[in-house]
Amino acid sequence: MLSYVTTNDGKVREAESYLGEGVSSVDYDYPEIQADSLERVAAHGARDAHRHVGGPVIVDDAGLYIDGFEGFPGPYSAYVENTLGVERVGALAREDGATRAAFRCVIAYCDGEPFDASPEPVDTGDRRGRDTAAAARGSASTDETVADGELPVKLFVGAVPGRIVEPRGDGGFGYDPIFEHDGTTFAEMRPEEKNAVSHRGRALSKFAEWFVDR
């Protein structure tokens, strides 16, 4: 059984659409480090969650990256949402003409066992490096091991481009009302429509393709 560390039932349903019904949700509040990349936050969470669960786990971390703000709020998206608020972030971006943006999601997997070499596009050789540039491009996976004896974590990145608009729609959560993709905000999409194009769905798709042989 694969444990998805989340209390969001929507995330679990989305994962099941790619992985089948062998996914269970786990309510565990793992410590979320302050870091400048989603990869580091997710990897740390996956290691801690695996120690708690004692079996294969996935965690995810996601963020909104606004081009004109040099990727801000990025890994600080949740904090910025709770302090400035979604509508204020949207207003600032539109006032500055910084409307090009992307949602990114990192799925981090840990089962306590080593991994075979990544098929592509990243294999660090000594298993310790990070390729954040490849991750930013939405690459299939990266391996991350930061120190001797540290649990290996495999990362899967999904990204979806869009632009910041006036809030529209009553669905979704977080920044969904101000993020438009192909003419429709995430908050205007039905759940199945959003799942088909979302950053999380794209990361889950890559993970599912790899996990079937795990």
Number of helices: 7
CATH architecture: Alpha-Beta Complex
Question: What would you call the structural class?
Answer: alpha+beta
CATH fold node name = Maf protein
Radius of gyration: 17 Å
Strand content: 15-25%
The best one-word shape is: globular
Q: Uncertain segments of ≥5 residues (pLDDT<50)? A: 118-141
Number of strands: 8
Give the biggest beta sheet. 8 strands, mixed
Helix content, binned percent: 25-40%
- How far do the termini sit from each other? 12 Å
Written description of the protein model:
The structure is a single chain. With 214 residues, the protein is of the alpha+beta class. The chain has a single domain (2-211), classed as Alpha-Beta Complex (Maf protein). The protein has seven helices and eight strands, in the order E-H-E-H-E-H-H-E-H-E-E-E-E-H-H. It has helices spanning 9-19, 38-53, 77-83, 86-95, 132-136, 191-197, 199-211; strands spanning 2-5, 23-26, 57-66, 100-110, 142-144, 153-164, 179-181, 184-185. Strands 1, 2, 3, 4, 5, 6, 7 and 8 form an eight-stranded mixed sheet that branches. Strand 7 and strand 8 form a beta hairpin. Helix 6 crosses helix 7. The longest helix has 16 residues, at 38-53. It is globular and about 50 Å long. The model is unreliable at 118-141 (pLDDT under 50).
